[in-house]
Design a protein that fits this description.
Blueprint (H helix, E strand, L loop, with lengths): L1 H6 L3 H22 L3 E3 L2 E3 L3 H12 L5 E3 L4 E4 L7 E4 L7 E5 L6 H7 L4 E5 L13 E4 L2 E2 L7 E2 L1 H6 L8 E5 L5 H6 L3 H4 L2 E8 L8 H15 L2 E8 L5 E4 L2 E4 L2 E7 L5 E3 L34
Parallel strand pairs: 6-7, 6-11, 7-8, 9-10, 11-12
Antiparallel strand pairs: 1-2, 3-17, 4-5, 12-16, 13-16, 14-15
Length: 296
């Protein structure tokens, strides 16, 4: 009889049943101490050991100052605009991964005489046209297919003489697998990266965290972080009592092209604007973190 009653549930009944299950699961996790309700956010309790492991990842995002070069904003003063070093000497090609309905960054870069290779599997084309735009309706992935492409394959289509390439990526979490499966040789062709790194709410998951540490360690071997901005579409998280955004915009520059020193600016800077204009921007300060026991 139970199966008979289950079969008569309509969409509303199934939705209610799902909500009841979710409520019970959240209650169980709260009882176990796996998550903690903090207003509209979930914190986590993992002890000092978890905090040390989280710090080992977050230290990779501490920005440094580039000696002798200013930064500028490229694109709109809001979501879709990003901060870059004001150094475009020798740049002939830019890769723009994730377009949707916003391409002011692409327009500004194209106006500098740079060809833009645009990839987005969710739209049929960019919202504006420019003779330097090259659009491909494909997603960025770890493997190439009819509807997907890899960073390495895309770079292989660009002449070997073009080794000062810009990369902009906002691909909703796929950036981790993209960089994980990219080689140092391919990444070394890029002079600046501006990327939105997603899903820090998953940082308590050791599989996610270990991959993120591996990706950032690879990137930091040839790039230095020069700018950060918290995406305020979501609220600031508490990661084992460490405040950090769920999504962070990061600008990186090649280490062998520049000299660096400690950064004195606080973030956001005058070049930054909230992604969601009706919400306050996320204050990151200098984004410096103390060394953990694992660094001793």
């Amino acid at each position: 009889m139970a199966n008979g009653r289950q079969g008569t549930l309509g969409p509303v009944g199934r939705a209610i049943k799902g909500l009841i299950y979710l409520s019970r699961r959240i209650h169980a996790l709260l009882e176990e101490g796996a998550i903690r309700a903090e207003g509209h956010e979930f914190g986590m309790d993992g002890g000092p050991e978890l905090q040390v492991e989280i710090l080992n990842l977050l230290r990779h995002f501490t920005p440094r100052k580039v000696v002798g070069f200013d930064k500028i904003r490229v694109g709109r003063c809001g979501d879709g605009g990003y901060v870059l070093l004001n150094d475009f000497a020798g740049v002939e090609t830019a890769l723009s991964f994730g377009i949707e309905q916003e391409c002011t960054w692409d327009m500004d870069i194209a106006a500098r005489g740079v060809d833009i290779h645009m990839y987005d599997h969710t739209v049929d084309g960019p919202p504006a046209v420019h003779p330097r735009f090259r659009f491909f309706k494909k997603r960025i992935s770890a493997t190439a297919g009819k509807q997907s492409e890899t960073l390495g394959n895309i770079l292989a289509t660009i002449p070997a003489s073009g080794n000062r390439i810009l990369l902009k990526a906002d691909i909703e979490g796929s950036e981790w697998e993209m960089f994980e499966h990219s080689t140092i040789e391919d990444l070394s062709r890029i002079c600046q990266i501006v990327c939105e790194f997603h899903d820090f709410s998953r940082i308590a998951d050791p599989v996610w965290r270990n991959r993120a540490i591996a990706v950032m360690s690879k990137l930091k071997s040839i790039f230095e972080v020069v700018h950060v901005h918290g995406n305020n579409h979501t609220s600031l998280l508490s990661l084992a009592n460490i405040p950090f955004p769920d999504v962070i915009e990061v600008t990186m520059a090649r280490k062998n092209y520049y000299n660096f020193e400690d950064e004195s600016d606080l973030f956001p800077t005058d070049l930054d604007f909230p992604n969601q204009g009706k919400r306050p921007d996320i204050f990151l300060g200098n984004l410096r973190f103390p060394n953990g026991a694992s660094d001793a």
